[in-house]
Amino acid sequence: MLTDASANVTDIYVYEAFGTLIDHIGNTSNNYLFTGEQYDPNAGFYYLRARYYNQTNGRFVSTDPWRGSMSDPMTLHKYLYANANPVIYADPGGKMSSISASATIMALMSAVTLTAISNHQQMERAYVGLYRSGSLNTNTDGRLSPYMAYKLGSREWAKQKKAAKTKVEEAVRKSGCRGNILYHYTNEEEAQDIVIFQDMYTSSPHPGRPGGAYATDIPPWAKMTQQELRKQFYFSRHRRKSGDVSWFVVLCNNVEPFFGSVGNNEWVKNDVAPTTPVNAVGCARNAMP
Fold this sequence. Notes:
Layout: E1 2-3, E2 9-15, E3 21-25, E4 38-40, E5 45-47, E6 52-54, E7 59-60, H1 98-101, H2 103-118, H3 120-133, H4 148-152, H5 155-175, E8 181-186, H6 188-197, E9 199-201, E10 213-216, H7 226-233, H8 237-242, E11 247-252, E12 260-263, E13 266-269, E14 275-277, E15 279-285
Antiparallel strand pairs: 1-2, 2-3, 4-5, 5-6, 6-7, 8-11, 9-14, 10-13, 11-15, 12-13
């Protein structure tokens, strides 16, 4: 994890064992990555002082300037990184694994590993904090999918879903809505505009799909991800991948022409005008990860 001066988590990095970056959550420009060492984006390798390290194959790109020790055959390999065991060892100088320099470092590394395992709740809070700040965006970064099940089951995420449900119930109660409740998923700006202007843009008809304004009866606390929501309702490949559904609008279906069900949890308000009136009683951030 990377933090700012106030110890707030700004970025999370996930690596394979030998240092290949497989996920980065956050927007901070930073070249000090795997084991805190400097990555050279021009060379595509890590600069480890005595020589460069190729993280894709777990080997140095040039021979070891240190001849090694006959009593430790592993050190005689001229290209090996961290004794071929980067989970425990490191090679910050490009000459010898840190474990060979001091047995104390091995104990320290083990302690750090155990601490990281015991602090899984801290990692959970970090994910939630990044999401709330906008640094974690499941709409545009499909690489986050391995974490979806983890976050869906977390207690923190359960709180987010409960909060979304409470907001909907309060908005419906204050509005006195007597129609069925529907939801329209979109970006923050458009969601707020719908609530302010009380209308929605309509779409043109397509084969097998009528024109009009679309909504769904799937609530923002449903057991699904934003990516799954996009795939269910968007037809274009681009919008299925990156369409923004990070916010939702609560719609009271009591304004003519009414929304009618067209199946697949989808509802449409048939209207040939560019916009159609709606009763938008509130909006909030989508609780789906």
